[in-house]
Amino acid sequence: MPHMVWTTLPDGFHDYYNAQWYEFTGMPQGSTDGDAWNGMFHPDDQDRAWARWRHSLATGEPYEIEYRLRHRSGEYRWTLGRARPIRNDSGQIVRWIGTCTDIDEAKRTAEQNELLSRELSHRIKNIFAVISGLIGLSVREFPGCKAFAYSLRERIAALGRAHQFVRPYNEESKPATSRTTLKGLLTDIFKPYPASETGRLRLSGDDLVVDDRGATPIALVFHELATNAAKYGALSSDEGTVTVEIARRGEAAILTWQEQGGPAVETPPTRSGFGSRLTKLSIVDQLGGSIDWEWRPEGLFVTIEVERGRLARGMIEA
Q: Cα separation of 153 and 193, whole Å?
């Protein structure tokens, strides 16, 4: 076998290693029997590996861990350790059989890719900042474009928050709260609006996974809806509210936006503005979904339907 294979007694005493173990480690036959195997691990990994192994021995749960194992060259190489218990007819553990697999090359390649991804993410974030700065400088030259420039900078800021949401994280740097769900994304998008702090802009319903495929168009759409609601709709009134509901229906995601308590809607708009065209571009053209606008007397009601597979690859459940 290409793997290092080992077995232990029920109490965890190592009593067998195959030839691949001795070939990899360069250790003499029998020198790592018993508990001596732990000394083969990197000093920073020994306590963790030993604790995980004791837990498996106490509970009978499968053993799986990544650690750095000392190679015959003296270097430490990343290794995947796994073990499963062998039970008799009455369910008692009679032996453990385990393997060690050299994953050092794959591990270091993954670390390098993560480093490159984080550097790229940092540069993209800087690009957003540069664009916002250029808009600010340009509006000084053309004061008449101030309102347009403000709207454009807000849209760029929404894109920046969407990018921040889906940028690469490692195990140490990822946020404690889940940032890979639709509710997490919308919470980030709504943070700049005071109504989200006072409870007048509420999220409810199911939660769905979203990745870089769906984050940007969804962020733009709900930024537009929230901005318009703050300027002209329910959020322009102290008593107005907005409820965003997310529902999972088979392979589809249904998102509804309901405004209430704002200025009464007497007649629907006679023309569509840039925000409406941007929303259609994001939902219909980019995500292949549908969007329906209802101008009810009590406020705007929007229904968005998108295949969950377009929000995240593989339709992973939240």
A: 15
